[in-house]
Amino acid sequence: MALAKNARIRKHVLKIDSTRNGFDFYFLNLPEAQSFASYLARVAPMRIKTTKKLVSADVKSNTANLKHTVTCDLVPLCRGDLVMIHKSAKGILSGRLALISKVSSMVHLIDASPNRSPTMERVLTELAPETYYKNGGEKLYQVAQTSNRMVRFVVLDVERCGDDNAFSDSPDGEEQNGAGKGSIPYALADVEIARETDFGQNDETFRCVTHLGNLLHPGDIVLGYDLSSSVLSGAAEWDMDNCFQSNFVMPDVVLVKKVKDKTIEKEEVSADASESNDSKLVDAKARMSKRKEKRRLRNEKKSMALEESAIRMGFVPEEPAALFDDDLMDPDLVADLEAIENDLAAQEEAAAKKVAQADAEIIEGGE
What we know:
The chain is α+β, with helices and mostly antiparallel strands. It has helices spanning 2-5, 30-43, 129-135, 234-243, 261-287, 290-313, 331-366, and strands spanning 15-19, 22-26, 46-58, 63-74, 82-85, 97-103, 107-111, 124-127, 141-145, 151-160, 189-195, 206-210, 221-226, 253-258. The two termini are 50 Å apart.
């Protein structure tokens, strides 16, 4: 999305190749590649290395052609992942479970099983890409659950742990007491929940301390990880036994995010649309032969794959804003991208002014 929305940063890309572990971008010179890498480093956490290789050399004229390679290693952590931080790692969350709340130039972590406290002290921390790779990478920061394993829960009761960092009870989660944008957008609360699939079927409930105390109200739907019923492999269980501190208590449920009303409405609309589309496909299949149907599906699959790859990289003559649903986009990421694009525009404007001033000085000197 970052590359698709910013045409200014893509204009120097000569060629793109898909590789096994990512993409290869080709540029005409080194400054353009370094500018592209610095832009990516502001959008996602990564480690940047620059190497050079001798292509050819002319001893008589004392010149050489060098090929520079700028390697960007992204931190393999996504928003919403549940991470096991080994006890030998450095930081306030070492030897505990952590939830990734945001991914930008740094990885923002939240304690997945915080203690009851009126403040958010020792619950929030940040992980720099250099620290991640210096500490050992995936060996000390192992992903236990990903976002596709999240389960829907129904909130039955919410009891905030303190009012010092709690927000108002408004549905929009607006700050009270004059809190501004710099305030912490989280508050600890003791929440009683039940699985949505079990709601009305049995009396099984769970209690957990979550950082979403300023957003949750009884009756809300929230996504989280059900660790009480998850099945892990033998290696994963061994890692969990040797990864955490001795005083760490494994929670039954880890809540991740609240499901907004707009998202629920969109899911219902998409379900109705899929049912109608399925009925239309059934009628169409009845009229078509099996051979024509297979050929049509094969061609549609190829065309959809090409269109998705082109749209994903931004090389489609469409408005970038129309490629993404504003309601489903991450507002934090959108704000970060807008700030980065404004900085790039300001830098280009300043460079243009310097060039114009230099040209004017040259003209005056010539006169």
